[in-house]
Amino acid sequence: MPPIDLTAQDGVRYDVMAIGNALVDVIAAVDDEFLIRESVVKASMTLVDAQRSQHLYSRITNPTQTSGGSAANTAYGIASLGGRAGFIGKIAADDLGNIFAADMKQVGVEFHPGAHSTTEPTGRCVIAVTPDGQRSMSTFLGASSLLEPSDISRDAVTAGAVLFLEGYLFDRDAAKEAFRTASKYAHAAGRKVSLTLSDSFCVDRHRDDFLKLIKDDVDVLFCNETELQSLYQIEDFDTALSRLREDCEFGAITREKKGSVVISGDELVHISAEPVDHVVDATGAGDLYAAGFLYGFTRGESIEYCGRVGSIAASEVITHVGPRPLVSLTSLLPIR
Questions:
Q1: Which residues pair with 86 in a beta bridge?
Q2: Which residue among 59, 80, 170, 335 has the highest number of C-beta atoms inside a 10 angstrom radius?
Q3: Who contacts 216 (Cβ-Cβ below 8 Å, separation ≥6)?
Q4: Across the strands, what pairs with 220?
């Protein structure tokens, strides 16, 4: 486990400073006929351009609009657990950008935006929810994908005990360099760097760059079983896990119903999945697992406790539609 309470370090104002896609989630109830009429693939996530995003936005009614994106959800989870979180992301000076910034403040996450984009509007994810609870997502990354090194505030990064990087943002070379810049700032100040791989397809596209980042800069890696196997191109889980232990100090690998495995040096702990009556929507489970793990990690807790809090946070979010908890996660923390 970490040798000290990381939140007690000089200059630390946040448990976690997250960097990721700054998106506005636009959630609306629709019927199945809407999906057919608008050619939306049910229960999928599809990347769309600005014109398509605006078209779908114009066709829905009474939407709920909140700040979103994977790392933003993790930051929200930290705040819900009673921790302190910040977020770095890129938006434009437009209505959706204002919505994102205001919602971040509302949920208790301090937003540190980069320079406003002048070429792309703020990113948006139109989430069509059918009566059966299925979420069909049409995502326009917009300004969020244009993050570059100059958008990274050294002061903001070093104010976090742990830097948390979102793998979804890793597609562009400028964003990769932004990750390296932020990691350099964090380590120079004695902070820890964590990364979530986000998606196996993202790993397939950038495997060599991910491996270099993990070996050179990452202290804590979050991924699921499929992403781990994709990273090392190894089908056997235990063999892939052994490779990770050579490359990274800490790791947390989720395995759905099998729970998760957390590692620290020679220590390996299996964490059971928290029982739930019915899985309604798995969106955000990995994001909230990372939030729970990092909440314990920044406080010097054992990796077993970190993994258990991660599992508890993930179990709450999968019991309802939406990637954020509906109750304060502080009420679910295990008794120690």
A1: 17, 110
A2: 80
A3: none
A4: 194, 250
What per-residue confidence (pLDDT) applies to 116? 97
Q: Which distant-in-sequence residues (6+ apart) come within 8 Å of 185 by Cβ?
A: 152, 154, 157, 158
pLDDT at position 50 is 93
Please give the tally of structural domains in the chain.
1
Q: Which DSSP state fits 7?
A: G
Q: How far is CA 196 from the centre of its chain?
A: 7
Q: pTM of the prediction?
A: 0.92
Domain presence at residue 52: no
Determine, yes or no, domain membership for 34.
Answer: no
Task: For residue 57, tell me if it sits in a domain.
Answer: no
pLDDT tens digits along 170-204: 889 999 999 999 999 999 999 999 999 988 888 99
Encode pLDDT of 212-244 as tens digits: 999 999 999 999 999 999 999 999 999 999 999
Task: Give how far the C-alpha of residue 33 lies from the chain's centroid of Cα atoms, to the nearest Å.
Answer: 32
Buried b (16+ CB within 10 A) or exposed e, 35-69: beebebeeeeeeebeeebbeebbeebeebebbbbb
What is the DSSP secondary-structure string of 34-77? HHHHTTPPTT-EEE--HHHHHHHHHH--S-EEEEESHHHHHHHH
Report if residue 194 sits inside a domain: yes
**Residue 242: other Cβ atoms inside 10 A:** 13
Residue of 317, 220, 295, 307 whose CA lies nearest to 271: 307
Domain of 157 in residue numbering reads as: 6-22+69-90+147-332
Q: Is the dihedral of CA 232, 279, 109, 104 positive or negative?
A: positive
Distances (CA, A) of 20 to 71, 119, 334: 5, 19, 29
Question: Kindly report the CA angle at 270 between 186 and 329, in degrees rounded to 5?
Answer: 60
Distance CA 1, CA 85 (A): 21
Phi-psi region of 133 (alpha: psi -120 to 50; beta: other; left: phi over 0): left
Query: Residue 168 sits in a domain of what CATH number?
Result: 3.40.1190.20
